Amino acid sequence: MIKTASNxxxxxHQRPVASPPTNSSGQVSRRVLFITLTAxxxxxxxxxxxxxxSTDAPQAGAVPKTGAGSGPSGSxxxxxxxxxxxxxxxxxxxxxxxxxxxxIGTMTAFNxxxxxxxxxxVLQQLDFKEGQQVKAGQLLAQIDPRAFQAALSQVEGTLARxxxxxxxxxxxxxxxxxxxxxxxxxxxxxxxxxxxxxQLEGTVKADQGAVDSARLQLTYTRVVAPIxxxxxxxxxxxxxxxxxxxxxxxxxxxxxxxxxxxxxxPSVNVPLLTSRLRKGQxxxxxxxxxxxxxxxxxxxxxxLDNAIDxxxxxxxxxAIFPNADDALFPNQAVSVMLQIDTLxxxxxxxxxxxxxxxxxxxxxxxxxxxxxxxxxxxxxPVDRNWMAIEGPLQVGDTVVIxxxxxxxxxxxxxxxxxxxxxxxxxxxxxxxxxxxRQRRMENLPPEVAAKLKNMSxxxxxxxxxxxxxELGQSASPAGPAAQ
Length: 483
What we know:
- By secondary structure, this protein is of the alpha+beta class.
- About 35% of the residues lie in helices and about 30% in strands.
- Strand 15 (about 360-365) and strand 16 form a beta hairpin.
């Protein structure tokens, strides 16, 4: 029996090879049936493969299903089984849009003065604090005045002497004139006295000039502020000899109230800027920090340069800022927002709603039947994330601002609130917490699981923390429930 059992399969295996094909009706029917079944199986497999490929491939207006999108939160975010694309929308509005030009500029002092000594002498005192605001004419420093006071006294004495001589010559002249009328002296003596009086008058004038010069030199010992502004750091210390030739002087004053801003804008804006300046209209200018987020000050355009730079096709613009709080400093680099015009009562949509494609710029409009259609628009200026547009839109039309990357013409959508990227998905977090809790409960004995179900959430977390080592890695709490 063992030999027969072992040889029977061999005989059956060799039978199809040894026997020639026949044309009997039974064998033909079985072959046709086998071929038919094979073709049906191949067709079903191909159909299944085609359907799976078409389902997995991303299409316009449809989102592939993933594990993250199979839950409640995922089905809402990625369309789920309903086939609706979730989008966020915003209504078209009419509002005022500012036409802004951005640039980079440098703050410059309204006036700058290097305070130098006008005479040579020893610096005795400094009457300012570094960084303080000073007014024109305010005392800043004192130079030793003693030598200049002595020189003034000397020339004043010479002046007094010469004035006395002049006074005596004039008295003699009057006597000579009386004597000449009585023929008491010759006329030549009178002429000589007249000449002497003129000579002494010239001497007195020269002496007066010397006195004025010495007095001026004495005033130079008091160094005063030539302009109002903010003083910088001192350039010389007390006790040093200062001279007019000192390159750094005593201190530098920058007038920062007001302060100016110089920046360049494209030359295409020149006609509008000159027109508004000619009419006396204020052109607002914002000075922002380097990131362009925080406004430092608000001013207005003062004037334009007299020529366009041909290498950059730009023109320099000077703006003035009051700078009462001293927030701006000379040579400070700032971002600039120049408002060259204002468009009133224009159609505007969020900037995120405007897309660009083969047909140009367009937006997706949500229709009443929850389908979307494209509208080609002409974009305009952007102001605070709102863009002025021209196109076939009406006030109140809802345009898609988020979720448009998977839309197509005529696709159906589901309007949802815009997702805040700074906040976690609450539904996903809750789903993860429930899944983690369920896995941990399944790994516990039935009597322990029943006991845990009767506990409060805080007691359950405490229990898992206490028995974490006993449960092992598979039963360790995960997600927010374990915190």
